[in-house]
Amino acid sequence: MLQGAVVNLSEEGQAYRRRLTATLYDKTGRVELVWFQGINYISKSLQPGATYSVFGKLTYFNGLPTITHPEIELYNAAQVSQAGSLQPVYSTTEKLRAKGLSNRAFAKVLQSLLEKLKPGDIPEILPAELRQRYQLYGRYDAYMQIHFPQSETQRRQAEQRLKWDELLLTQLRILKLKINHHQQKGFVFGVVGDHFNNFFGHHLPFQLTNAQKRVLREIRQDTFNGVQMNRLVQGDVGSGKTIVALMAMLLALDNGFQASLMAPTEILAQQHFQGIKELLEPLQVPVALLTGTVKGKERKQVLAGLANGTLPIVIGTHALVENTVQFSNLGLAIIDEQHRFGVMQRAKLWQKNVFPPHVLVMTATPIPRTLAMTVYGDLDVSVIDELPPGRKPIETIHRSENFRPKVMQFLKSEIEKGRQIYIVYPLIEESEKLDYESLKAGYEQVKAWFPDPKYRVAMVHGKQPQDERERNMQRFISGDAHMLVATTVIEVGVNVPNASVMVIESSERFGLSQLHQLRGRVGRGSEKSYCILLTGHELSKESRQRMHIMTQTSDGFVIAEEDLKMRGPGDIYGTRQSGALDFKIADIVHDVEILEETKTAATEILYTDPSLELPQHIALRAGLEQDRSGKGLQWNKIS
């Protein structure tokens, strides 16, 4: 808030360009004030030379400090001393302001309301010991000071306390869910038998990394103790999650149970099926595929084998959760890229046996630590943080459009070495039609650079009939096509070891995590691989930063953390729509320290008092129930 004399009132421009300008002046300098609306009213109400209190967003125009459409009223020394030097900012609109409900008007209403409140009207929910240990404001004082702080220190302390409340209640809810999971009776995998030992001892295609061994030990422990496993395995692209999943399946088989693996797309399900079937051939373990395209006699045989127990392992899409699919004794359900499935689809797998089967969910999208503590906090989390030996790092290069001829020449040289190429185009829902047009134009452009019959180019996108899409994909997987022009349908799971180059068109339109996922489609063979990020000439500061991060690191966890900082959790994981991170004041990106503190506190509280029945926790339980009902007070809705 600024105080000064308003001078130099003048109207400038004509018609819709008309504006009112004035200068706020004091002994330290001047600020330009500008209005584009309500000019007649404001020019009549302002008193030239009088001292005003002014509040608004300060920007610079032509090198001069400027406030556009400021909140302004005659200076009142008594009011200023009463309210303090800091003023609150509330959400308002042009329509509300036109009705006189400006930011200052909101502040006056809140001030008169808060003056009527007594400490008992905002009851304390935190135990005294906790407030003392973490040096937290009382709840009543926090609500008072968040609106009208007397100093920046008080504002920060009030903010810290309100963030603490939000994050602690969230952590308590998540940990209670986790405790309930840990009390859910589960099947006991009591032995490590012939299937597991034979595969581990004689048929592993490569030596397991220490990270893979650690995750297998965690799965073994989960399935041995009589409680249902609910574990998330996250590992970067190519870290070897599938082999861990396969060995967990063999553990289920050794204990007389069946296992299933559900993948989000037909292509990925088929790829898992081919890979796992090949690995299990020496053990003569039957494996079946169940997707929407498996029909007739073949489908009946698969369903019969699952129902009578002669088929121990099935791999498929969401077809696995259909009511017609009945298992003899499902003990382990594995879900790949679990964020691609709805909650109801996942829950249906739980109903496939007397007790819910053990659940192992896998993702190649690294989850930042703060999200793992909130959105996925009810799951036990395993991380495969090593790549198998022999993997060569992918060289990532950023090039603008004018480098296209050189890029195309480089692609030709790779094809002549016997390699294959991906070229991926963006597909954004809002501009889907335009994107498909640019994809088809890009396909024709690629064919012009790489003419038949020397070069063979296939195209894959979501609008194609499924059989045509599968056929084109298979052409590329088998090596019949040198190049695959595609949308992001190839983002997850497709494994073509001979593909050595990923070209991403209009890279500035992709998020960091998606760029990293696409890059992970190459680098799966023994040859050196490349990812080329093609962009337009003019890039925003944020796009340039994304390109810089991609060329500097291949660590998926670093990239996920940066993506979280740049885009926010809701934009990345769809949590904004689910309400999982619908905080009023807390921010998991910037409030990591408070998040850590509240997780520790929640763990201690529920360890000693799982039902929150002790006298010091009664108020906290009431706060938790009120918060869950959505009827809680929201005094802290302030920006």
Automatic annotation (TrEMBL):
NCBIfam families in alphabetical order: PRK10917.1-3, PRK10917.2-2, recG
GO molecular function, one term: 3'-5' DNA helicase activity
SUPFAM superfamilies according to UniProt: Nucleic acid-binding proteins (SSF50249), P-loop containing nucleoside triphosphate hydrolases (SSF52540)
EC number: 5.6.2.4
Function in brief: Plays a critical role in recombination and DNA repair. Helps process Holliday junction intermediates to mature products by catalyzing branch migration. Has replication fork regression activity, unwinds stalled or blocked replication forks to make a HJ that can be resolved. Has a DNA unwinding activity characteristic of a DNA helicase with 3'-5' polarity.
PROSITE patterns documented for this protein: HELICASE_ATP_BIND_1, HELICASE_CTER
Catalysed reaction, written as an equation: Couples ATP hydrolysis with the unwinding of duplex DNA by translocating in the 3'-5' direction; ATP + H2O = ADP + phosphate + H(+)
InterPro entries: ATP-dep_DNA_helicase_RecG, DEAD/DEAH_box_helicase_dom, Helicase_ATP-bd, Helicase_C-like, NA-bd_OB-fold, NA-bd_OB_tRNA, P-loop_NTPase, RecG/Mfd
Superkingdom as given in the UniProt entry: Bacteria
SMART domains: DEXDc, HELICc
Keyword set, alphabetical order: ATP-binding, DNA damage, DNA recombination, DNA repair, DNA-binding, Helicase, Hydrolase, Isomerase, Nucleotide-binding
Domain Helicase C-terminal residues, every copy: 406-565
Family: Belongs to the helicase family. RecG subfamily.
Helicase ATP-binding domain mapped to chain residues: 222-384
Keyword Hydrolase in record: yes
GO biological process, one term: DNA repair
Protein name, per record: ATP-dependent DNA helicase RecG
